[in-house]
Amino acid sequence: MHVLNFSKQCSKLMMLLHVSTAYVCGEKEGLILEKPLNYGETLNGSSHLDIDMEQKLVEEALKELQDRNATEKEVRLAMRVLGIERARQHGWPNTYSFTKSMGEMLLGHLKEDLQFIILRPTIILSTYKEPFPGWIEGMKTADTFIVGYGKGKQKLAMGGRETITDVIPADMVVNSVIAAMVAHRNPSSRIAVYHISSSRRNQIKIDDFIRIGVDYFKKNPWIDERGKAVKVKKFHLLDSMDSLHKYIAIHYMPSLKILKWGNLILCRHLQVQHTNLQRRINQAIELAELYKPYMFFKGIFDDTNGEMLRMATRESNADDTFNFDPTTIQWDKYLKETHIPGLVKYIF
């Protein structure tokens, strides 16, 4: 809202381009179209979304926590629980996709006669070419598992082997932003929506993603802080929370109990080992819960509007400079030679 109000004061403003996420669709299945969200609509259709009321709920919950002098950790946990609760009530799987949806709705509702473009990228990976291959800042969805596995700390995930994981390099997203700005230099009152995605034209399944990651670290083990090569183990992809809990109960809980009793007998000399194992178990469960909507996602993102943008860049011979065509990506080559080495260099 602040950005929108600021933009309306710019006398030579041509458009407002908003980068959102393709996952405002929630957990829809089938072909997901490039269309704007209606103000106040919900994904389950069972209620009306009152954004002002949601904001008020947040403020009241925060005030109540402050009044009883809750710690920062307690506040963060309580607000996270509230966010997920409110998101699920309206049909979104998490706070991220819920708040992104509200952002889109507010801008569309308040834009008046302003030209408004929504860009919805999927899961963003490291750069394909620009400013140089493999650059990345911060860990994104898919990378959490790659980093954990390559460091020898994580060999568990939950997901469907046949699930199509929709990923796109960061520079392709940036290039699509520039292309969209050029394409909309003539004013229009229509809201333009673009999916910047790969699932319709160049699919990669979770199974392939895992196979490539495992293969990479077997051949190129990460050298840790002590100069030792980390030997990766077999990666286990489990198909439900039940199977995850069973796996943990069989493979981790006996060791955790032994460490707990040993720690008591040896006057806390095994505290570090016990804490580390507990942390790894907690992390596996947290990651599974957090990424469940993406690891079993059954949607394909329609990118008809995105393809029209690409056609326009081809016609003006700008497609080499501003490439955002997912069909140009060879997933094996890109992941092994660009993305994973980029993660090792900039994130590990």
UniProtKB/TrEMBL annotation:
Domain of life: Eukaryota
Pfam family, one: Sterile
Keyword set, alphabetical order: Lipid biosynthesis, Lipid metabolism, NADP, Oxidoreductase
Catalytic activity: a long-chain fatty acyl-CoA + 2 NADPH + 2 H(+) = a long-chain primary fatty alcohol + 2 NADP(+) + CoA
Single biological process term from Gene Ontology: lipid metabolic process
Record-annotated Thioester reductase (TE) domain positions: 2-176
Record has NADP as a keyword: yes
InterPro entries named among the record's database cross-references: FAR, FAR_C, FAR_NAD-bd, NAD(P)-bd_dom_sf
GO molecular-function terms, A-Z: alcohol-forming long-chain fatty acyl-CoA reductase activity
Domain Fatty acyl-CoA reductase C-terminal: from-to ranges: 265-348
Annotated EC: 1.2.1.84
Enzyme class: oxidoreductase
Keyword hit for Cytoplasm: no
Protein purpose: Catalyzes the reduction of fatty acyl-CoA to fatty alcohols.
Family from the record: Belongs to the fatty acyl-CoA reductase family.
UniProt protein name: Fatty acyl-CoA reductase
Species per Swiss-Prot/TrEMBL record: Solanum stoloniferum
